[in-house]
Write a structure and sequence with these properties.
about 5% strand, about 60% helix, mainly alpha, 5 strands, about 425 residues, two-stranded antiparallel ribbon, single chain, 14 helices
Length: about 425
């Protein structure tokens, strides 16, 4: 919004200082600072409102240390995160960018589903909340929208170097003059990045090569189900991770910062050429959105660190998981999710293994057995006697290590 306003002022009246808004780094920094301020100011007021309305979490006694002390802590704090993401993005991002529009839709859509779930739990006093099948349907719809836009929208392209003659030449400028000249063409393709391989691009359409000539036009039949799977998996993984004070928000902030680096280099023709990765025109604009996301999650931690003054609820956890998944898909780095989102993956796998093994042993022996003392994984360590702050900090340290490994994949092949 402000980008378009100041661009008009700059182009029409040459207003001093208005040209700053043309710089992506400047707008990303403003988005980060604004999201932090919104989270810290609005967050405190929202918590006081929830306390006045006695909107508190109902905690089931699972025998965990300090668990019952959380009884009555306000929930639905995800609204703090949503507002801290949406407002700076609307203010500082280019709203005619298809990637920004996709991220805004993702935030509102999954945030809305999570809000309905929290509303039913808190105000309708129904502990079950929104039925799981409706959440899955919502995630599938989002996956369909993202997949169809990524496949059919003419602005979603990869810009690749070409050796054959072409009239399309890109001159990249630096402060001292022309920095490089690239002969390139835009192609609409379903390529993605495979980590750790030299020729690290994979086209989903190859999976349909058995169809014969013209198979590439049916690539969406493979791509869209994969998008749905990724969005559902990461969104639910974030939801499962939201079980300790500061764990989901801190992990998401680390992941968001890493995705911001990946988006920055993928959207910069010079960095993309140096790193030999796909150059994605206009994807650098997502740096503004992800800066707001990082600021929102860090700002939320101001109130969510142990002992938490507010919980994010499904309003926040479903949204942040969806944001991470869709962002990774847009920048063609979705195959890095198992590494970057290793904490989410471990939490999800611990639940699936626990439930699966329990059902299997009960069917075979009549007595269900467990692999972990409790799932998700963070509760296993809590049962072993580790304090909640220690578990959270150690998980975040692991998350930082995974983030560093993810960035290293840009060069290690």
């Amino acid at each position: 919004m402000l980008y378009h306003l100041f661009k008009y002022l700059h182009d029409t009246y040459s207003l001093p200082g208005s040209g700053l808004f043309q710089y992506l780094s400047f707008r990303a920094a403003l988005a980060l600072i604004t999201s932090l301020l919104i989270g810290m100011v609005f967050g405190g007021r929202w918590i006081r409102f929830l306390n006045r309305k006695q909107v508190g979490e109902t905690v089931r006694d699972l025998g965990l240390e300090g668990q019952m002390e959380k009884q009555g802590t306000p929930t639905m704090g995800g609204l703090i995160i949503l507002s801290s993401v949406l407002i700076p993005s609307l203010l500082f991002a280019r709203l005619n960018n298809i990637y920004i529009l996709l991220m805004l839709f993702t935030t509102v859509w999954l945030g809305g589903i999570g809000f309905i779930d929290d509303y039913i739990k808190v105000f309708k006093k129904d502990k079950a909340g929104l039925r799981g099948k409706y959440k899955i349907i919502g995630q599938i719809i989002l996956g369909l929208v993202v997949g169809l836009v990524m496949y059919f929208n003419k602005n979603v392209v990869i810009r690749e170097k070409v050796t054959e003659p072409t009239n399309v030449v890109y001159n990249v400028m630096s402060e001292s003059g022309p920095a490089a000249t690239y002969t390139m063409k835009d192609s609409r393709t379903m390529k993605t990045t495979i980590p750790f391989l030299k020729n690290n691009e994979f086209d989903y359409s190859v999976l349909l090569s058995w169809l014969g000539e013209g198979y590439k036009k049916w690539a969406f039949l493979v791509f869209i189900p994969i998008v749905i799977l990724i969005i559902t998996g990461v969104s639910n993984g974030a939801n499962l991770t939201d079980g300790m004070d500061g764990l989901a928000a801190g992990t998401s902030a680390i992941i968001g910062a890493t995705l911001g680096i990946l988006a920055w280099v993928s959207g910069n023709i010079i960095f993309a050429d140096y790193l030999n990765i796909m150059y994605l025109p206009n994807v650098g604009e997502l740096s503004v959105f992800i800066s707001a996301f990082v600021g929102a999650t860090v700002g939320f931690m101001w109130f969510n660190t142990y002992p938490a003054q507010v919980f994010m609820g499904d309003t926040g956890s479903l949204a942040i998981g969806g944001i991470i998944a869709v962002f990774a898909i847009i920048i063609r780095k979705e195959l890095l999710i198992p590494l970057l989102c290793g904490i989410f993956l471990a939490e999800s796998l611990s639940v699936m293994l626990q439930v699966g093994y329990f059902k299997y042993t009960r069917r075979k022996t009549g007595v269900g057995k467990r692999i972990f003392l409790m799932s998700p994984l963070h509760h296993h360590y809590q049962k072993k006697g580790y304090s909640e702050p220690k578990i959270v900090v150690r998980f975040l340290i692991v998350g930082i290590a995974l983030a560093v490994l993810t960035v290293i994949t840009l060069k290690v092949r």
